[in-house]
Write a structure and sequence with these properties.
224 residues; alpha/beta; 2-enoyl-CoA Hydratase, Chain A, domain 1; nine-stranded mixed beta sheet
């Protein structure tokens, strides 16, 4: 039997449809709404909006998917403009790192289930959770998906046929594998939880492992 969270989450994802679409931008006063997959198609328009100086908050609404390189571009524009960020509904992969770049980053109000899935290559240890996404640490974590690992020293005596292996990312980027932070509405206010998803759960996030002592506010994932 699924937990209430699992049912709400599955319904929420079902409403998004079977496939993610490219990013859409919608301007609402001083708020810029971003939905869809951050695939790079809207990055120039996004940067232009922020450069205008009129935007105060970027709202990510049901944004799933994207690459670490695109996440870095969105994050760079957000940090440069010192805007706040907000999540309404689901924000995963590239969206999660762009969200963390906000001056203040919060979940939106309302009756929807809010979820933030941050990709990580392995189940985090308690020490990893303590500071991994707090301030600049979040951007350093993102760079680990982009910057190649250090190459081993080349043996000058080795035959030419023995080539040094190509550089590989330090961590593997998988959109459905990572730490999931959720905010679920109840009759007594919102309940916040944190989970580790190993990527095998697909859209059934009720199969993710509950993480103890991982309050998103204490970890800096959400600001007060």
């Amino acid at each position: 039997m699924k937990s209430p969270f699992g049912v709400l989450w599955c319904v929420s994802l079902a409403l998004l449809g079977p496939a993610a679409h490219s990013a859409d931008l919608e301007l609402e006063g001083q708020r810029l709404l971003v939905s869809g997959m951050l695939d790079g198609t809207a990055i120039k328009a996004f940067e232009d909006h922020l450069a205008s100086g009129r935007i105060r908050t970027v709202v990510f609404e049901n944004s799933l998917g994207g690459t670490p390189e695109v996440a870095s571009e969105y994050a760079r524009a957000i940090r440069a403009s010192s805007v706040n960020t907000e999540v309404k509904g689901q924000c995963q992969a590239a969206c999660a790192y762009a969200f963390l770049a906000g001056k203040e980053h919060r979940f939106g109000r309302g009756f929807q289930v809010n979820g933030l899935l941050i990709p990580v290559g392995a189940r985090p240890r308690p020490a990893d959770l303590a500071g991994r996404w707090n301030g600049d640490d979040g951007m350093r974590t993102l760079s680990e998906f982009i910057a190649p690992a250090s190459l081993p020293a080349t043996d000058a005596t080795a035959p030419a046929a023995v080539a040094t292996p190509a550089a590989v990312p330090k961590e593997r980027w998988q959109a459905e594998q990572g730490v999931l932070f959720t905010s679920t509405p109840t009759l007594f206010g919102r309940v916040y939880n944190s989970y580790y998803c190993d990527g095998t759960q697909g859209r059934d996030m009720s199969r993710c492992e509950l993480l103890p002592d991982a309050d998103p506010h204490k970890l800096g994932v959400l600001t007060p």
